[in-house]
Amino acid sequence: MVNEEELLDGAARVLAGDHSASMVQIAAGIGTSRATLSRRYATREALLKAVAVRAIEVVDGCLAPLDLAQNADADAFDTALEELVVALMPAAHLYGFTSRDATVLADPAFRAGVDRQDQRALAFLVLGQRLGRLRADLPPYWIWYSLWGLLDAAAEGVRDGHLAPRQIGHLVLTSFLSGTRPLARPPAGAPAP
Amino acid sequence: MVNEEELLDGAARVLAGDHSASMVQIAAGIGTSRATLSRRYATREALLKAVAVRAIEVVDGCLAPLDLAQNADADAFDTALEELVVALMPAAHLYGFTSRDATVLADPAFRAGVDRQDQRALAFLVLGQRLGRLRADLPPYWIWYSLWGLLDAAAEGVRDGHLAPRQIGHLVLTSFLSGTRPLARPPAGAPAP
DNA sequence: CTCGGGTGAGACAATCTTGTATCGTTCGAG
DNA sequence: CTCGAACGATACAAGATTGTCTCACCCGAG
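The joint structure predicted for all components is written out below.
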């Protein structure tokens, strides 16, 4: 028997590679049979929603440590942010599929869950802005979305074989925080220091 | 009669919202009938590949101005980079779907086109690294992927209604270049300047 | 050993999607 | 006006997918 988490993760993995994979393809990708899949989840739609629920749960688990009251100083915020990014990394492929499927998107419960998570994350990011650790001139929503964009890009880079799984944690974090512009930039036209 | 570009853009828009949309749904989303759609593209697969070809073409159009020999100085590079990002913005939703669909991904011609574009972009980014305008400690592939991740995140933010279309150009550019960390950052624990 | 739960394989009808064809209509060029 | 190209609507068969069912098998608990 396959563990439920493994099953859902496997389904998410297959679906991430092909959003319209059939039940047969999903079952084959997991290494089980369509009969078992149908016994566990009455409907393909039910399976997709179960994957969505798991995505919500996993991200909730990442967001839980963000106890705002205790992160009132800049150093603690930095640590929490770094841990958040690293924790979110494996959730990227789960969300990458979930947040793009029409079946899932149409589910009010899923939308509510995402909204709740967004608010939670936004509060954390706004705290970072107040602490001076995140740029205050950027909309918190954009900060949150851009982080997911980088996570997604990293997952895609790994899937395409252009990036090594070991390096993407550092890459996402450094790009998210510092961007791709070199830190020391002499004024244009000035002689080299 | 619907212009072919409009038709493909409309199809891409519908497919971006639902990767497994049927021909009926795509036709309805564009505002035409399934009969017309079938007349223009013999197969659903043919339609998807046409969308992919258009995505390639549009991005090629964005990459064309990157005449490397003429961008040998830092200022010209900066200008070209900014123009590239802005030009790529409307292509994000085209690619967002295309690069994730199994039907399209299986097409060798599409993969070859993407590879060619990647090499072209990578050469431009490496030039930026040599000119000192992009961080040399980041893999060029990651710089390229992260830019697409930000473009995709911006498109999603607009689609979700959390970002205004007018602001995403600036947001993507500033996040891409400078990240979300405030520029002036005193060493941790040091007294404020 | 015996038994029962979980499994894989396969059959089956119902439904959806696709590709093709036909009809009448619209609209613009000549 | 006339005509032809393109259109929307509709019907149809072929194929794929889904949900349900049955059957035989494995394997661990008792």
